[in-house]
Amino acid sequence: MPARRVAFVGAVAVLAALTGGPLLRIRTWWSYEDPLATDPLLVAVLALAGVVAFVAVLEDGHWRRLDRRAVAFAAALVGWLVVGTLWSLDRAETLRQALQIGAALVIGAAVALRLGLTAWRWALWCGLHVGLAWSVVAIYLHRPGTLDRRGDWAGVFFNRNSLALYAALALLVGGLLAVDLIDRRGHPIRLLALVVLGGAAIVDVRLVAGSDALTPLVALLAAALAAGSAWL
Length: 232
Fold this sequence. Notes:
Layout: H1 3-18, H2 21-27, H3 40-58, H4 68-83, H5 91-115, H6 117-140, H7 160-183, H8 190-211, H9 215-231
């Protein structure tokens, strides 16, 4: 398998892990509890992915290809979150989440440098749909924890808001990919890819509706407006 394909598969696996859902489900295989993000397995996997990505960005000076404004903004954001631990009511939790956000940004930069923007979007789309597809199967098989106490869908994420959030993000990324494919009229698998994106979008909308979570829809609208403005 060519190195680029190996990198793509690895990126999909890491991005799927970042959503937390698959890791949360795996965690229940040996001890079923309502898993939290502070679970040692989740923290260790995400931290390891962040460290590997950081090394990949620094290797052979790849970091020089990054947009300096984006790097400065990301560093300022993470720095501000870390400083926020000074007045946080739970300093350890605030610091952990700040470092996880920083690791996610570094992973995103590493994948974009290695694969390019278009492949990076496809890797993110695939990574998101690992947990979402798993959720669809688990929900319809009535697996424990896939519905919350109110009967709303939670999937393998064990939280209806998390399920809806990643479904909304998948819709946004799928829209960006669809726009890119529409512009590439000579692409050999263009129509097939559009059909796949359309089918997945229907499932994503159903997951958002089943979760009965409004916040991700507001976030999706804001993100779509921002992406549309940038595209124009």
